Amino acid sequence: MKIRKIVSRLQELHPKEIDLSLDRIQNLCKKLGNPQDKIKAISIVGTNGKYSTIQAIFAILKEANFKCNIYTSPHIKNINERFVFNNEELNNEDLADLLGEIENANKGESITFFEILTAAYFLRASQYPDNINLIESGLFFRFDATNILKNNLASVVTSIGLDHLDWLPENEQTLEKIIFEKTSSLLNSNIIVAKQSNKKITDNIKKTISNNESNKVFHNENYSFTIQENDFFYYEDQFGGIKLPMPNVKGQFQLENVSTAIATLRTLKDLNIKDDHIKKGVLKINSIARLQEIKSGKLKALVKDHKLFVDGSHNPLGAKVLNEYLESLDCNKHIILGMMANKDHNEYMSFFKDIASLTIIDIPNQPNSIKGKELKDKLNGFSNINYKESIEDALKSIPVKENDIILITGSLYLAGEVLNLN
Predict the structure, then answer these.
(1) What is the pLDDT of residues 133-148, one digit of tens each?
(2) Fold annotation for 292-421
């Protein structure tokens, strides 16, 4: 209750949810003694794969006995998820005290909620100067509140694609502009660039960071991976190759994220990450709402022996890699879909070529989501499409047969509702 009250007050400090600028966060952090200057950080930017890459880095670092702080957004089930210190999620009491301290320092000045949370993270993180900080950028990066560090250990550029176009002027809603916003202000240290969906994107990233003096590491040029038989995959870079067990996360795209995590940690030679740390770490990755199988709980009980997955992908690039995984399965696939209003709904669903049924739902507690009936009308090209008001009704209505799977997708906000309901 205490957290809910303070969050409500902090959300009223600015009329906009997002207002891209660095002035407010810089002014607040100056009042706090510039805590962001006292931490060791790995910055993670991109469109897709940021959270999964962070979780893979975290799992490996824990095996090497490092303590980490982690800042991610948005949260899936509760706001505490955004704040990990000393390898542990911050509890309610400590988070309320931390936000209260930031509120007092801010003295009622106009500032966005995300900027407040970012300042809170920096302040708490500065209390652990020896920890490694894994910091996920929010919207774009150039004017994101996380972009006030003066130096870092590395910047990781995950897969970049079209998303959040509504935050750009109409004449600038291009992939080239997104790449510029995400990579033009990366710090001079190490830059690790993950596999991109095509060579044009990689070339554009190279062009944008051409004057950056960082050590640059690119997928397929400086590191790579191949899938081997008998549930192994092989990672290779300038330091040699490692035969690794398949990680405990599903999908080819997750191997790309894991490989980027490995490349990052092996680039940072001072960390002295051993092959054994990597081999054990890739089996212990905690990835919430990223092709997560629900194996027990209220919703799982409704589908009985059938497999139930939840995935928070919400943009065309996410749909593409998600469908690649679905196509690797020899079974019927049923999709339950809910999306936010500002997404490209038809483009997202265009990647799903072979699904047995599509059930549209409303996303509970999300006023910025598109109404299910409206979304159903937009997606009328699907032959077996239905609408149900609730997640439970949708699950009960699907005519599943033996070995069929059900996937709930389209939004991280929907994924959070699913996991909380379950």
Answers:
(1) 999 997 779 899 999 9
(2) Protein-Tyrosine Phosphatase; Chain A (3.90.190)
Residue 410, Ramachandran bin (φ over 0: left; ψ between -120 and 50: alpha; else beta)? left
Q: How many residues does the chain have?
A: 422
Structural domain boundaries in the chain: 2-281, 292-421
| Average per-residue pLDDT for the chain | 94
267 touches 217 (CB < 8 A): yes
Query: Which H, E and C letters describe 65-128, residue by residue?
Result: CCCEEEECCCCCCCHHHHEEECCEECCHHHHHHHHHHHHHHHCCCCCCHHHHHHHHHHHHHCCC
Q: List the structure tokens of 177.
A: 């502009």
List the beta bridge partners of residue 360.
337, 387
Q: How far apart (Å, rounded) are the C-alpha atoms in residues 404 and 307?
A: 7
Query: Parallel, antiparallel, or unpaired for β 40-45 and 132-136?
Result: parallel
* Token digits of residue 190: 């190490």
pLDDT in tens, 14-57: 988 778 789 999 999 999 999 999 999 999 999 989 999 999 99
User: Model confidence over 51-104: pLDDT tens digits?
Assistant: 999 999 999 999 999 999 999 999 999 999 999 999 999 999 999 999 999 999
Per-residue burial over 185-195, b if 16 or more Cβ lie within 10 Å, else e, is: bbbebbbbbbb
**Predicted structure pTM score:** 0.94
Determine whether 8 is exposed, middle or buried from the number of CB atoms within 10 Å of its CB (0-12, 13-18, 19+).
Answer: exposed
The set of residues, in sequence order, having a beta carbon less than 8 Å from that of 303 and lying 6+ positions away, is: 395, 398, 400, 406
Give the Cα separation of 371 and 363 in Å (integer): 8
Per-residue model confidence (pLDDT) at position 165: 57
CATH code of the domain made up of 2-281: 3.40.1190.10
Q: What is the largest CA-CA distance in the chain?
A: 61
